[in-house]
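Predict the holo structure. Ligand: 3,4-dihydroxyphenylalanine.
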Amino acid sequence: MLLEKIEALRAQIKELKADNSEAIEALRIKYLSKKGEVTALFNEFRNVPNEQKREFGQRLNELKTLATEKINSLKEKSQASEAQANKIDITRPAFPSEIGTRHPISTVRKEIIDIFSRLGFTLADGPEVEDDLHVFTSLNFAADHPARDMQDTFFINNDPNDVTRNIVLRSHTSSVQSRVMKTTQPPIRIICPGRVYRNEAITARAHCFFHQIEGLYIDKNVSFADLKQVLLYFAKELFGPETKIRLRPSYFPFTEPSAEMDVSCMLCGGEGCGFCKHTGWVEILGCGMVDPNVLELCGIDSKVYTGYAFGVGVERITNLKYMVKDLRMFSENDVRFLKEFEHVH
Ligand code: DAH
């Protein structure tokens, strides 16, 4: 009995036809589901005498395999013809997924950090929402210094009577200097990369936020010659071994003496061209010897220790290296702009 049923089903299954997924699914249910005809035969298998179990077991398994394979092959055929009807090439490789690129500011920041790391500088960090003490007062800014004006600095609270009035968005990374000096005794040798904010109208040449890297070195017997040597190494690493530097006297409240550093123009090599306004030099950073007042305000003995500091604008360096004309490009995240830096690492 069972043998006949198996044979009958086998003949049926061999001839099965269906060309769409619903019809194929109906066949699967008819034969292979829990209540399907093939499954039903497995239930009858219980009544087969023991000595015949082996043979029947084999035949039943073969039948099940036959049914499964038949249905699978019907499925494949119908999918292939459906794909063809829709003109889909199922053998075509998938579209490559878009991979992002490193932002030019990140690339240049990393490059600057790497250069100073090689000289033994370690990273320090501080908050972007700062207080007046760390951004201005500890750094020797006079009470009436214009940077403390709302025109230049973002105040979290504009009400002059409010106690949170002294909370600002830091306008320079020099604030990290004062934090580190207050908690660490020399030797101190740090660089502090970070974002800074200024109350400026956004144009091609100014933005309300940008990035700086601050450097600070404090120890016994640190001199201006040390500063100059480190900055010369930095300039050569960044713009090439032919690069020259010059230091011009300048003023910052937290350094004395203070200087601004120029490097020989990377376009004309110092000959003079339109880019360097025919001077042969372009300005890249501010620096100086840490003012003894600042050391004392931050709890460091200015009779024992001296130090130097410098502050570099990351956008400025990026502009000089890659001739980006408009500062707004850096924050618009236009992929066409970012893609241009795909091969820069
Ligand atoms: N904080 C200055 C700025 O934002 C940059 C700077 C100048 C930092 C001289 C320094 C320095 O550490 O010594 O313009």
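The radius of gyration is 37 Å. Residues 59 and 192 are 77 Å apart (CA to CA).
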